[in-house]
């Protein structure tokens, strides 16, 4: 039975890895937003979106853990699966002996500190810590920055071989910091998983640590039957979490990722899931005083962590405001759906789902535009394109609720920023020639061309109330070195006035006019 | 003459007079066989395909312009991510009809492309042109990256001395220019010559170096379209070139075909002027192009045929 279970786990985890990766790849996400649905089953997005539509998913993830332990880590987490692949691949280069895992003691201080840090900062509305540590968000960044770029290179290579059927994809603005972060993280993961299996999941990952604490209370736990066990150590040699201590015959449930490998490898059938909501824990603890101490300490930690999680959920439920000021002046324009920079910062974990999905390639990971606590979060760049008027893709794919889904009608009135016009930089003013590029691109006609003095020329006139901040004007303004028209961010997104409709009187024309 | 017959004739005559029916309109279908070829044909009152068929026949048929085995480019305006009803782009049915006609005349391939303003895939798709052109047998050309453009000298240009022009225009044997007639905030009007902005890469240079002059300059490019077909089935009379709502669009049901790009724009502008006032002087690129000997604004100096359906 465990063989079948394990096989299903491997198949499901690979499927999830594939669909989540597809969500970040151009050839797939340009065709359909279907794959974005799978992002919502990730733990951190479900936690952050618990009060914005992901409540049920979040509860299901918790219930799943309370039943069978860290199934999320072994099956649903794409970074977990990726690490297993690295472990497997590294195994090919190792001798049989070196391939074996051994028991390692938990790095409890480190893991609980990181979890506490992540939770406390989240309570105060800072997502930075969880963004940098969250396995899904890191996987998203690896997909976008590395796999996605590789895809682009391949496509552009093909575009020179078969230019008629494959088009060249223009390289959009490159943010080195984000690329380096993703690459460094990938290297860290490769090294850790190649040598120590799931060490990242059991030491650094706050999701792993939290679910580990939770799975102390789970209904079914893997247990070693001391009567059947012949201490062959096969289970521990195959435990990528290094959490089986055969000497004491105990499996450290907090670090077990429910991969089912031990149950599969055991030739005696000594390892199996056992119903654990009976009162046998007390008996066990009384057996060994030392063990008992350890357990009670860990239980305390578990309770503290649960308390923090509870506080976090409560604070999010009541919409507790962010406790830090976005001290530096905010210059970044947040994608439509963000609502406000504050909301973005409270909910975004910089997974780059929106960045990879934007058809215009204008969403970029932030450097300093939002201040220090907004690094890597999505920010608009009007350097090479602008925000499509009839597009809502970014806020449809966001799994966290950092960008809330907007209807097209809402989006067309969502003012993410406002244009500013500087006459003295305008071509019509400086060169005394017609231009009108900004007016051409303005989708709401917040810009209109009006007669400029008595020169016979026309100059832009701006109605900021209609402007939605799409950046078309800024992108296309040909004035150099400084643009005559630029969009500045709305820290809180506003609703623009509806564009005016100029009715035309019907003219009956039945001649050519010449 | 019997009184009855006289009354009949008088009645018919007065009706004919009232609807301004002229002898040439009655015999429009036969004029294609006239020995001297038309320079400009204006058609009015039909759907895009019917108007095109009448018009191209009056121009001497597509075989006058496209020979067997030639590589052809049909260049519509696909600038914006807008539906056909909003008239921001050339009518897709018209594009399809031209493509089919070119292939029927023996063209070895027909490429349809435009350097769009909005995101290119959205424009190609939502304009309806990609589907229409593909199902008519054309290939879609990519034009969204600088890599698809090559430097070309424009020795006769005043401000624009060189431009990066799309490779399919450079490589083709003949190209057909198929703009849509629209109001335009910067250039006042966008017709045939303004449609050249979709065959070049660096439009920013035009905007910052006397847009009107650059439009005229680019029209001096030695490889001229063999035919300009101005789609005026739906025309955007205000808030152009992008437009906001269907309120900006008028169903004008006209089509202009000309080998002379300046004449085509002049005729289309005069037609447009009946819906919304627009003076020749304001659309100064037309006059500037005439000065550069690209064509004529004097429609009396060329052979014009008017067809009403």
Structure, explained:
The complex is a heterodimer of chains A (514) and B (309). With 514 residues, chain A is mainly alpha-helical. Chain A folds into two domains: 2-317, no CATH class; 416-499, Alpha-Beta Plaits, CATH 3.30.70.20. Helices cover 45% and strands 10% of the residues of chain A. In chain A, the strands form five sheets. Chain A has a two-stranded antiparallel sheet with strand order 1-4. In chain A, strands 2-3 form a two-stranded antiparallel sheet. Chain A starts with a helix and ends in a 19-residue tail after the last strand. The model of chain A is unreliable at 281-288 (pLDDT under 50). In chain B, helix 3 (48-58) packs across helix 4 (92-104), helix 4 runs parallel beside helix 6 (129-136) and helix 9 packs across helix 11. Helix content of chain B is 32%, strand content 21%. By secondary structure, chain B is an alpha/beta fold. In chain B, a hairpin with an 8-residue loop joins strand 5 and strand 6 (162-166). Residues 21-34 of chain B have low confidence and may be disordered. Chain B contains eleven helices and twelve strands. Chain B starts with a helix and ends with a strand. Chain B folds into two domains: 1-27, no CATH class; 34-308, LarA, N-terminal domain (Rossmann fold). In chain B, strands 1, 2, 3, 4, 7, 8, 9, 10, 11 and 12 form a ten-stranded mixed β-sheet that branches. Chain B has a two-stranded antiparallel sheet with strand order 5-6. The chains are: A mainly alpha (514), B alpha/beta (309). The interface between A and B is large, with 49 and 54 residues.
């Amino acid at each position: 039975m465990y063989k079948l279970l394990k096989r299903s786990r491997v198949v499901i985890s690979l499927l999830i890895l594939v669909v989540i990766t597809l969500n970040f790849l151009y050839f797939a996400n340009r065709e359909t937003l279907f794959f974005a649905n799978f992002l919502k089953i990730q733990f951190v997005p479900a936690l952050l979106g618990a009060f914005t539509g992901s409540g049920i998913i979040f509860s299901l993830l918790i219930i799943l853990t309370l039943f069978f332990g860290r199934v999320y880590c072994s099956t649903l987490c794409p970074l977990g699966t990726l690490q297993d692949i690295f472990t497997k691949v590294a195994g090919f280069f190792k001798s049989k002996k070196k391939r074996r895992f051994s028991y390692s003691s938990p790095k409890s201080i480190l893991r609980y500190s990181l979890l506490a840090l992540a939770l406390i900062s989240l309570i105060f509305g800072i997502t930075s810590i969880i963004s940098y540590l969250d396995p899904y968000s890191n996987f998203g960044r690896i997909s976008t920055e590395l796999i996605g770029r590789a895809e682009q290179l391949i496509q552009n290579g093909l575009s020179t071989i078969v230019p008629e059927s494959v088009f060249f994809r223009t390289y959009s603005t490159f943010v080195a910091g984000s690329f380096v972060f993703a690459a460094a993280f990938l290297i860290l993961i490769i090294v850790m998983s190649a040598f120590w299996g799931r060490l990242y999941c059991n030491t650094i990952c706050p999701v792993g640590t939290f679910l580990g604490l939770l799975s102390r209370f789970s209904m079914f736990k893997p247990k070693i039957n001391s009567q059947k066990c012949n201490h062959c150590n096969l289970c521990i040699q195959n435990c990528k979490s290094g959490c089986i201590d055969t000497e004491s015959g105990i499996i450290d449930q907090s670090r077990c990722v429910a991969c089912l490998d031990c149950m599969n490898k055991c030739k005696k059938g000594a390892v199996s899931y056992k119903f654990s909501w009976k009162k046998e824990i007390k008996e066990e603890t009384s057996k060994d005083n030392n063990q008992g101490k350890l357990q009670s300490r860990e239980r305390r930690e578990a309770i503290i962590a649960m308390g923090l999680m509870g506080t976090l959920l409560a604070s999010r439920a009541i919409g507790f405001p962010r406790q830090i000021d976005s001290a530096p002046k905010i210059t970044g324009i947040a994608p439509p759906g963000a609502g406000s920079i504050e909301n973005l910062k409270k909910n975004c974990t910089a997974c780059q789902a929106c960045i990879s999905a934007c058809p215009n390639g204008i969403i970029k990971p932030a450097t300093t535009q939002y201040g220090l606590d907004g690094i890597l979060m999505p920010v608009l760049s009007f350097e090479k394109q602008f925000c499509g008027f009839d597009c809502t893709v970014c806020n449809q794919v966001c799994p966290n609720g950092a960008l809330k889904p907007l209807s097209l009608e809402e989006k067309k009135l969502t003012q993410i920023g406002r244009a500013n016009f500087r006459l003295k930089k305008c071509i019509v003013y400086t060169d005394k020639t017609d231009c009108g590029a900004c007016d051409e691109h303005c989708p709401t006609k917040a810009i209109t061309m009006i007669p400029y003095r008595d020169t016979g020329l026309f100059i832009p006139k701006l109605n900021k109330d209609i402007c939605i901040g799409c950046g078309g004007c800024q992108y296309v303004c040909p004035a150099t070195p400084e643009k005559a028209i630029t969009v500045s961010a709305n820290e809180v997104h506003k609703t623009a006035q509806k564009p005016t409709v100029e009715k035309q009187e019907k003219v009956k024309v039945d001649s050519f006019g010449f | 003459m019997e009184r009855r017959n006289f009354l009949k004739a008088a009645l018919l005559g007065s009706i004919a007079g009232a609807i301004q029916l002229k002898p040439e309109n009655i015999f429009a279908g036969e004029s294609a066989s006239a020995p001297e070829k038309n320079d400009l044909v204006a058609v009015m009152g039909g759907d895009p395909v019917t108007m095109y068929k009448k018009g191209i026949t009056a121009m001497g048929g597509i075989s006058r312009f496209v020979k067997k085995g030639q590589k052809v480019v049909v260049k519509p305006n696909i600038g914006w991510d807008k539906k056909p009803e909003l008239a921001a782009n050339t009518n897709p049915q018209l594009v399809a009809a031209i493509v089919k006609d070119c292939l029927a005349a023996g063209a070895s391939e027909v490429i349809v492309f435009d350097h769009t303003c909005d995101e290119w895939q959205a424009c190609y798709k939502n304009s309806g042109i990609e589907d229409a052109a593909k199902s008519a047998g054309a290939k879609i050309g990519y034009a969204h990256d600088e890599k698809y453009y090559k430097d070309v000298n424009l020795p006769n240009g005043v401000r624009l001395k060189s431009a990066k022009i799309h490779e399919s225009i450079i490589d083709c044997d003949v190209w057909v220019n198929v703009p849509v007639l629209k109001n335009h905030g910067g250039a006042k009007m966008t017709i045939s010559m303004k449609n050249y902005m979709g065959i070049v890469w660096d439009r920013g240079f035009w905007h910052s170096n006397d847009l009107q002059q650059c439009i005229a300059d680019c029209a001096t490019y030695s490889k001229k379209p063999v035919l300009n077909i101005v789609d005026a089935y739906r025309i955007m009379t205000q808030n152009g070139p992008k437009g906001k709502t269907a309120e900006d669009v008028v169903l004008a049901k006209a089509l202009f075909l000309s080998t002379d790009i300046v004449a085509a724009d002049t005729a289309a502008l005069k037609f447009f002027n009946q819906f919304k006032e627009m003076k020749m002087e304001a659309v100064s690129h037309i006059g500037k192009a005439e000065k550069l000997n690209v064509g004529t604004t004097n429609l009396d100096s060329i052979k014009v045929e008017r067809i009403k359906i």
